Amino acid sequence: MQFLKLLPVLLLFIFSCSASSKSKTAVTENIKAENRGITFIEENWDEALQTARKQNKLVFLDIYASWCGPCKLLKQYTFTDTAIGKFFNNNFVNVSVDGEKGVGPQLAQQFSIEGYPTLVVTDANGKPVLLTAGYMPATDLLRFANEALKRSGAQVKM
């Protein structure tokens, strides 16, 4: 009998704990989304160029191969860096393309790509501003990006 009197209180407690954990999960997911690094348009060069024209930004192209070890390191370590993500998301339209599929071979030929990964900054029309190849840590990628912005005359957005 005592148990029946406590049942509503117990149920209320269980449901409030469940709701609390769900709201914490939503907050955690929002924080992760803000700190995920560079946000890329995947495999769609034309969309990247259109977006760059609309937003008056340069395009940052990561052209990679699925089998490439240094490409995987860039994606795992450099592109996920929070500061790099904020800088690139503010200053570039970022696009990632497999150099061996879809539009990739055309872009590899267009930019005379000899190896992977190759990182290219272009204007909104696809004209190259600066190009580099190989793995690089976040500090070097930031220097590369700043040099591209400087060469293009674009204003840096923090």
Descriptive key words:
158 residues; alpha/beta; five-stranded mixed sheet; 6 helices; globular
The DSSP helix count reads: 6
Detail the poorly predicted runs.
6-33
Categorize the overall geometry.
globular
| Helix content class | 40-55%
Mean pLDDT: 85
What topology, given as strand order, has the largest sheet? 1-3-2-4-5
Tally of DSSP β-strands: 5
Secondary-structure element string: HEHEHHEHEEH
Structural class: alpha/beta
CA-atom Rg in angstroms: 22 Å
Strand content: 15-25%
- Characterize the biggest β-sheet: 5 strands, mixed
Rounded to the nearest angstrom, the distance between the terminal CA atoms is 65 Å
Write a short abstract of this structure.
The chain is α/β, with parallel strands linked by helices. 54% of the residues lie in helices and 17% in strands.
Structure, explained:
There is one protein chain. About 18% of the residues have low confidence. Helices cover 54% and strands 17% of the residues. α4 packs parallel to α6. It has 6 helices and 5 strands; from the N terminus they run αβαβααβαββα. A hairpin with a 5-residue loop joins β4 and β5. By secondary structure, it is an alpha/beta fold. It starts with a helix and ends in a 6-residue tail after the last helix. The protein has a 5-stranded mixed sheet with strand order 1-3-2-4-5, sandwiched between helices. It is globular and about 35 Å long.
